[in-house]
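Sanity check

After download, print the first record. It should look like this:
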Amino acid sequence: MKRTLWIILFVFIAMQFIQTEKINKQTPKELEIKAPEPIMTMLKNACYDCHSNEVKWPWYSNIAPLSWMIDRHVSHGISALNFSEWENYTEEEKKKELKEIFRTAYASMPLADYITFHEEADLTREQRTMIRDWTGVKK
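Expected structure tokens:
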């Protein structure tokens, strides 16, 4: 039993040497999505850590294997939608992304495990409705 615990400890320590890059790509503010202040506040609180180049990396994002999971979530989120580079999207892509925002406002975003550590990201029903209404997508 003692040997097993030592092995587990050694593996955990060794995992810490495999770090992910936590770089926020610098992008001009002109490329950022434009929305009314209340909507921007909600987007920044609930979405930007996974869907922008302005990720706030928490302290626990330096501890493997959590760091790997967080990096994967952020990479996937940015590749799906990046609010920091909104103006690089074509009009057709913007319409598609707004439909996605409309659809996921109630369904699945932000992720429950993110809300666990970021209470400010837990949007109320009214806030979700405001975001859905802002998208301008018809039901």
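If your output differs, re-run the checksum step. Summary of this record's structure: Residues 47 and 110 are 7 Å apart (CA to CA).
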